[in-house]
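fyi for ur records
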Amino acid sequence: MSPRLFPRNCLSSHPILRPLRVQRRTLIAAPSPNDGPLLTRRSDRALPEIPSSRKLWLRTLPIFLSIITLSTLAIFNYQKASSSIVNATLYALRTSETGKRELGEQVYFRDKFPWIWGEMNQLHGRIDISFGVKGTKGRGVMRFKSIRKTRMGFFETQEWSLEMEDGRKLQLLDETRDDPFKHTALQAQS
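which gave:
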């Protein structure tokens, strides 16, 4: 079909050929920052360029991973700090004669946000923790170690000591006295 035989307006007006007609509209550039307020927007405008987010991901991924790691460590440490084992050892230290003599009254965690070092695995029968304590007279690090030899057995205290800031290590577990942790929360598990 030659354009000479059928004029251009004839092709576009015929009902069968109408869907073949191509609309041509000019694209309008996206507004620049200094163009002023945008009151109307055409749907066929050119879209702005999207900056590559790969560099942003590479910069923010280490920050994200470090925040997640620190949050996880803080959550697990909070769980240890609020456990019945830590509360029982702090109570026993407060009532201990050696603890009162060396630390004084008002024995509590040394730091505002205490960090509990070590393992606290009641399921497998292993507790080996240490944390900083302070009183009105002194400061130190208390260490508590207890194991459960059989599955349904009782926990046996292996070590309960207080290391003072000056380097002295005091044994709080007196062999002549009974275990201060008998019939406490440690024994309630069995």
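The chain is about 30% helix and 20% strand. thats all i got for now
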